[in-house]
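Record copied across here:
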Amino acid sequence: MLQGLTTAVVVLGRDLRVVFLNLAAETLLGTSQRQALGKPLADLVRPPDELIGLCKKAFDSGLTYGCRELAARVGDREVMLDCRVGLLNAQPDHLLLELFDTVMDRQLRRDEDLLAQQRLSRRIIHQLAHEVKNPLGGLRGAAQLLERQLPSTDLKAYTKVIIDEADRLAALVDSILRAGGQPRPTLINLHEITEHVSRLIAAEKPAEVELVRDYDPSLPPTEVDRDQLIQALLNVARNALQAVDPVDGRLIFRTRALPNFTLAGKRYRLILSIEIEDNGPGIPEDLRDTVFYPLVTGKSTGTGLGLTIAQDLVSRNAGLIEFTSRPGATTFFLRLPVRTGEIEGRTP
């Protein structure tokens, strides 16, 4: 029964050595039950003093004790834990220790919020695209009819501008709708994408803006839609470029492989992370909860669609975009699971 729980559960003997770990505890503590059996609790959670004190109180009194937001280190990770400990089924020789990773819980809620935003944004974009395209057709047709009635070539130049701009907007709408199609995955190394985008950004940036590459050469290949990921990363990178000072700005293209990572509520043995960091002023506080919604932008000339489309494209490749932001350091993370089978497109 304990093995099936999603809560991390550790059973301890009176000597505070491990008797049992469930799968959730193996994941949280970064060790297997076979490796942990017989080890003292102090070897798994450091520093152990507060947790050991709770366990001893539970043994002495037979009552259940708990603590909140215990800063600890498990394996090679820093975590914040909520803990609860009590006798196992009133047996005086065994304790049941429950561990809750509060950071992970917040991350799961954040991922759920981002996915909900992405689904809503996808619907809004498609509705908006169709609403824009319909009057464009009428506008273009009216301009063509007017052009036939005009006697002067000079006057017809103005109707040509209307027609050309209507065509340009229609093409933009079509590109938005096409970008949301099902992915066509191929097996590639993500550095092929980061290098392609970094070269484009290098050509666009002011000469004084520094472009840094910080790559993990051990990244394994994965199956993604190359064109969709290039477009998503380019949208994020251009946002970062627009955020930095043209004189002392700095962009960092970074790649990392992250083991045992939970993404959108699912645990993966390994995910890949493309990170774009800038030293701009940061995302305004009032925009942080809605930054992936369409038409939300902090720039006077922005459309508010770049990050929305990027999130949609990454999610269609089974990934998610997250971010952290403070003045002088804003980082967007394009998280993607390592996949070697066919990618299933997500539906709204």
